[in-house]
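Please check this protein record:
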Amino acid sequence: MAISDRVLRYLGSTRNIVGCCLALLGLLAHFLGLAGTFWPVVVAALYGVGALLAPPDRVRLTISHAEVETRALRADLDGLLRRIDGRFPEDVHAAVDALADVLRGVLARAEQLTSSPDQLHVVSQTIRRYLPAGLEAYANLPRGYALARRAERERSAHEELLAQIALLDAELRKVADAIHRGDEQALRDQGRFLRDRFGGSELDLG
């Protein structure tokens, strides 16, 4: 592992966080006039105590099937975005970027997504088939041909591509809403459990 990676891991570790909290208490004591002239030593000592006594971060070596699946989909999405960079008009790139943001949000909920085969299928096919197919067909057209309409009421290839991306975006937002509703329901269920166990709660969403 590179040194920079080790530094970043330590900065986000429990030991560093606890050490920093105690060091801040040392600084507060200095500002209140309680640490005396040796306040730098006090601050450093408090940081060291916190870093030494804090529990180590849990080691997590196992990777769930959900993480494996969504990690592969994220890699495919990133690869697609790299391949199309600069090849399309700005409005197409903007539409694809908006869709990619929705996809990333959905993929971040690995367990919830993979628990629903239908939703996972929509996400997977969007990344690996639907979106690439439309972009590829458009990219193979001459630019002038793509922008021209063949008939009065017929969309140009450019308009057709944007319409397809909009359809995918709308469908993926339904998937995202379903996942968020599941999270909200889990929160409500937890609230009911806590109210049954401990009484009323100010966290009641109902």
Notes: The two ends are 48 Å apart (CA to CA). Residues 65-198 form one domain. The chain has a mean pLDDT of 80. The chain has two domains: 3-53, 65-198.
